[in-house]
Amino acid sequence: MPKQKTHSGSKKRFKITGSGKIMKQQAGMRHNLEGKSSVRTRRLNQDKVVSSADHKGVKRLLGR
């Protein structure tokens, strides 16, 4: 049986930590940044842990 390929888009968007958590970049940092407050842009710039509901699907896309 052939090997399962990793989803190309997912490997660019998600990182797995040493403890097994899946991290993602938050949305909202691409455009219209002048209209957003500095506090908001700093908050959006932090990585976040993927929710437990999406955890199983993301792991499957990453081939884990």
Report on this model:
36% of the residues lie in helices and 16% in strands. By secondary structure, it is of the alpha+beta class. It has a single domain (8-61), classed as Factor Xa Inhibitor. A three-stranded antiparallel sheet has the order 1-2-3. The model has no long low-confidence stretch (mean pLDDT 95). Keywords: Ribonucleoprotein, Ribosomal protein. InterPro entries: Ribosomal_bL35, Ribosomal_bL35-like, Ribosomal_bL35_CS, Ribosomal_bL35_sf. One of its GO terms (cellular component) is cytosolic large ribosomal subunit. This is Large ribosomal subunit protein bL35.
Rounded to an integer in angstroms, the radius of gyration calculated over CA atoms is 15 Å
Largest sheet properties = 3 strands, antiparallel
Q: End-to-end distance, in Å?
A: 17 Å
Total number of beta strands: 3
**Principal-axes shape call:** elongated
As for the CATH topology, it is: Factor Xa Inhibitor
In order across it, which strands form the biggest sheet? Answer: 1-2-3
* Strand coverage percent: 15-25%
Number of discrete domains: 1
User: Structural class, from helix and strand content?
Assistant: alpha+beta
What string, H for helix and E for strand, traces the elements in order?
A: HEEHEH
The averaged pLDDT comes out at 95
Q: Can you tell me the residue ranges where pLDDT is under 50 for at least 5 consecutive residues?
A: none
Oligomer: single chain
Q: What's the architecture in CATH terms?
A: Irregular
**Helical run tally:** 3
Which percent bin holds the helix content? 25-40%
CATH class: Few Secondary Structures
Pfam families: Ribosomal_L35p (PF01632)
Family: Belongs to the bacterial ribosomal protein bL35 family.
Organism: Candidatus Lumbricidiphila eiseniae
GO molecular function: structural constituent of ribosome
